[in-house]
Amino acid sequence: MVSVEERFMIKELRRQGLSLSEIARRTGHDRKTIRAILNGPVVPLVKKRQPKARKLDPFVPYLEKRIGEGVLNGQKLYQELLAIGYEGKDRAVRAFLQPYRPQAQPRATVRFETEPGEQAQVDWGHFGSIDYHGRRRRLYAFVMTLGWSRAMYLEFTVSTDAAWFLRCHLHAFHYLGGVPRQLLHDNLKTAVLERDGEGRVHWNPRYLDFAHYYGFAPRACWPRRAQTKGKVESGIKYVRGNFWPGLHFADLEDLNGQALGWLNNIANRRVHGTTNEVPFARLPQEGLAPLTGKADYDTSLHGYRRSSSDCLVSYEGNFYSVPAAYARQTLLVKETEREELLICTLNGEEVAHHALARGRRQRVVVAEHYHGIFPDPRRWQAEEEKSLKAPRLELSFWDAPVVEVRSLADYEQVAT
To answer: Which pLDDT band holds residue 50 (cuts at 50, 70, 90)?
Structure first.
């Protein structure tokens, strides 16, 4: 190809009167090329090529829609395109996304690797809010990542309290197939009550009991050194970038169902960027302590309440009945993961069992709890027959036996 400078020089030589043969001799081009250059412009017109059709082109509207919804993870979009018929490569999808991605700021850090089964890292992430039992609640994601295999567990909750902190640990142990030797996390109050002036950690007693039960050693990051648990931090970023964008779900149960499917089919089956291996392929080599034969730790939320003279216990704004023999006593209440309320004596003997009421100022009453407080046996028999025909749980308060109504004349007779 003849450059623009050569074209200009050839035209200049011709303007000076040199023949085609002499110009060809001096430039080393043949006469046909010299003639074509002299008859053409100095800057040749370049014929614009028609762009070649790409396999990605029919899917561009879909990609633009998902980008508008905040989805910028190339692997996630590639999987979605495969599901709707795309036959191209993932690199074409990543190249399409490149102009839309913000430039990452470089940060230096040191990565610490652990031996198989040695450590898991735990953290919470905040993911907006969700409608739960008729109320708008904050939505959290619990993530546990094994340090060696990078296998991870994900669960969404509407609470980060001590009960759910332990429950999510327990669910993760069952999902991953055992317990690591150490657990590393932030200085959460559900785990770390405080650090003294010398940096010593004062642990939450219930968390220590949980750790002792399952045989792992708890470890807390130094304050303001969250990068110490970078594996799980990366896991939460992965959830935000791959699972969460553009997600649609009906409720918390649906959300956790989709999260489990994502763990089983994508997160733990991908080739991890650091290990270059599939987490599920490495997981059997972790050597976690098995849970076989070990009963699950009791993760119920415990509290104490004093029952009233009308045999009711107040809990979270609602009222629950207890047998008349336990009126006006201090009792142990336990809220279970199955949304049940167990009412026990201080020795742990269960005296009442109710489904948790939703809403406020509701009464959940079992009529049989009032057995024996009526002076008229015939009246009690009638009330007992009535209660046997009604459901045993979540009865209206007014289905319980009521206090007997007497005439004022009866009291005047006693007074005289």
So the answer is: low
HEC assignment per residue over the chain: CCCHHHHHHHHHHHHCCCCHHHHHHHHCCCHHHHHHHHCCCCCCCCCCCCCCCCCCHHHHHHHHHHHHCCCCCHHHHHHHHHHCCCCCCHHHHHHHHHHHCCCCCCCCCCCCCCCCCCEEEEEEEEEEEEEECCEEEEEEEEEEEECCCCCEEEEEECCCCHHHHHHHHHHHHHHHCCECCEEEECCCCCCEEEECCCCCEEECHHHHHHHHHHCCEEEECCCCCHHHHHHHHHHHHHHHHHHCCCCCCCCHHHHHHHHHHHHHHHHCCCCCCCCCCCHHHHHHHCCCECCCCCCCCCCCEEEEEECCCCCEEEECCEEEECCHHHCCCEEEEEECCCCEEEEECCCCCEEEEEECCCCCCCEEECHHHHCCCCCCHHHHHHHHHHHHHCCCCCECHHHCCCCCCCCHHHHHHHHC
pLDDT above 90: residue 243: yes
Instruction: At 370, give phi and psi (nearest 5°).
Output: -100, 10
The pLDDT of residue 343 = 93
Each residue of 250-308: pLDDT tens digit?
999 999 999 999 999 999 999 988 889 999 999 999 999 999 888 999 998 888 999 99
Helices 74-83 & 60-68 angle (0-180, nearest 10): 130
Please list, in sequence order, all residues whose beta carbon lies within 8 angstroms of the beta carbon of residue 104, skipping any fewer than 6 positions away.
none
Q: How far apart are CA 267 and CA 260, in angstroms?
A: 10
pLDDT, tens only, 359-412: 788 899 998 898 766 555 455 455 556 655 655 544 444 445 555 555 656 556
Q: Long-range contacts for 310-318 (Cβ within 8 Å, ≥24 apart)?
A: 311/369, 311/370, 312/363, 312/365, 313/343, 313/352, 315/341, 316/356, 317/360, 317/361, 318/356, 318/357, 318/359, 318/360, 318/361, 318/362, 318/363, 318/364
Categorize the per-residue pLDDT at 16 as very low, low, confident or very high, splitting at 50, 70 and 90. confident
- Domain spans, the chain: 4-38, 57-99, 119-285, 301-399
- Report field, pTM of the whole predicted structure over 0.70: no
CATH placement of domain 119-285: 3.30.420.10
